[in-house]
Write a structure and sequence with these properties.
- The chain has 256 residues and is mostly beta strands.
- It has 2 domains: 126 residues, Pnp Oxidase, Chain A (Roll); 119 residues, Jelly Rolls (Sandwich).
- The chain is 2% helix and 51% strand.
- The chain has 1 helix and 16 strands.
- Strands 1, 2, 3, 4, 5, 6, 7, 8, 11, 14 and 16 form an 11-stranded antiparallel beta sheet that branches. Strands 9, 10, 12, 13 and 15 form a 5-stranded antiparallel beta sheet that branches.
- A hairpin with an 8-residue loop joins strand 5 and strand 6.
- The two termini are 27 Å apart.
Length: 256
């Protein structure tokens, strides 16, 4: 048994890394049911109605720095729906994470008291799919064209081996927390896959990130029902093929 604790956790939403402002977060997943007890039943019976709901409750410190917790959660963010990813096992490649295609910021509260550091609480509710996946690239800086962490020149090293191809397809998550925006074409990130770890092809690409601040391109989910091959990694490059713009981003994959 491998126990986990706070330093193993991460949470990114809409292009904001708010992990360093949080003291805890709790996720809730629930399948909605209806009672279907009939007259000759000795015990109450319940059946799933086919819909699920999820909540993610956060608590932490009030931090009004740029790209910090307050900017990510308060004021105009309440009522908005964004992509979110989080995990409790660590951020290394191959670790498990949870992706939300739509995280609705339903609640934000400031807590101010005498002789205490100001704090915040918030709640996300799902407005879309909640799905488990694996980390392809932990949140890390990229300063040159390449594959995976360390800007590898080829995909020979950083790929994940899923053991077999997946004919049902996969969804992929991109979470960018910094982009220099040095070129108008922006940063291109795509999922690469291979059947033999030698010949690689693009499985799907995210929209190019051109903005220098968080917007919808900083937090994306792409989905495909096309089969995905056994070996998978990510490739990042300047969208126009010129000098790469520095960026910090996370990529995860959720096979169907």
């Amino acid at each position: 048994m491998a126990l986990k604790s706070g330093p193993d956790a991460f949470l990114y939403v809409g292009g904001y890394n708010i992990t360093g402002d949080l003291t805890e977060f709790k996720d809730h997943l629930e399948a909605k049911t209806e009672e279907v007890t009939v007259l000759n039943s000795s015990y109450q019976l319940n059946a799933p109605v086919g819909t699920k709901m999820a909540k993610l409750e956060l608590a932490g410190f009030y931090n009004d720095a740029a790209l910090a917790g307050v900017a990510a959660l308060a004021n105009t963010q309440v009522g908005t729906v964004r992509v979110a990813v989080y995990g409790v096992e660590g951020t290394a490649t191959g670790k498990r994470f949870v992706g939300w295609s739509g995280a609705l910021t339903a609640h934000f509260e400031r807590i101010v008291a005498r002789d205490a550091i100001s704090k915040i609480t918030a709640r996300f509710e799902n407005n879309g799919i909640v799905e488990p996946g694996v980390v392809l690239r932990p949140l890390a800086a990229a300063t040159a064209t390449g594959f995976g962490v360390g800007n590898a020149a080829s995909a020979s090293g950083p790929a994940i081996d899923f053991g077999t191809s997946n004919v049902s397809g996969a969804a992929a998550y991109l979470m960018m927390t910094h982009s220099s925006g040095a070129t108008s074409s922006g940063v291109s990130v795509e999922i690469m896959h291979s059947v033999d770890h030698e010949t690689w092809a693009s499985y799907g690409g995210f929209s190019n990130v051109t903005a220098t601040g968080p917007n919808s391109s900083w937090a994306q989910r792409i989905n495909s029902t096309a089969p995905i091959q056994r070996y998978v990694t990510e490739r990042h490059r300047d969208a126009a093929g010129s000098s790469f713009s520095s960026a910090v981003f996370f990529v995860g994959l959720a096979p169907h």
